[in-house]
Design goal:
The chain is of the alpha+beta class and 146 residues long. 32% of the residues lie in helices and 25% in strands. It has a five-stranded mixed beta sheet. The longest helix is centred in the last third of the chain and has 15 residues. The chain is globular, with a radius of gyration of 15 Å. The N and C termini lie far apart (42 Å).
């Protein structure tokens, strides 16, 4: 199966919403007009790239990447990765690995000194990221805002 990774475009919005539905199945679907407004904000944001992986011409996975400028580390930026999801029928077929490789290349090309992400408290997910070369070096904290 050939897997290609590229930057998402407006035409990928429906596929992205489907993937995000798999990532967060308890979330109510985002209305189309709201999704289009959010996509417009995302696509206009400097340093933001939503990657999509295609397998057999189908959007099979995604990773949302943003380069954050930084005043430490000699001014080298950080690439944050969020909302990584691979459709269930494409899992364990190399799609996630290709997405993470593309995210790291994106960070390298932007001069980032690190690529960082938070992962769910799930042994399989942690093993996956470790297999992609990531190390669990810090403890993450969250505070949800309602």
């Amino acid at each position: 199966m050939k897997i290609t990774v590229r930057a998402a475009v407006q035409a990928d919005l429906a596929a992205l919403l489907g993937l995000y539905g798999e990532l967060n199945p308890d979330d109510a679907p985002l209305p189309r007009t709201a999704a289009e407004a959010v996509w417009a904000a995302i696509s206009g944001q400097q340093g933001r790239t939503v990657l999509v992986a295609e397998a057999g011409g189908v959007v099979a996975g995604t990773a949302d990447c943003i380069v954050m400028p930084n005043l430490t580390r000699g001014g080298r930026a950080v690439l944050f990765v969020e909302n990584v999801v691979v459709a269930g029928r494409f899992q364990r077929r190399g799609v996630g690995r290709r997405l993470m490789e593309a995210a790291v290349r994106l960070g390298e090309s932007a001069g980032c000194y690190k690529v960082q992400l938070l992962a769910a408290d799930d042994g399989y997910v942690h093993s996956f990221y470790e297999a992609c070369g990531f190390k669990a070096l810090a403890q993450g904290f969250r505070r949800y805002v309602e």
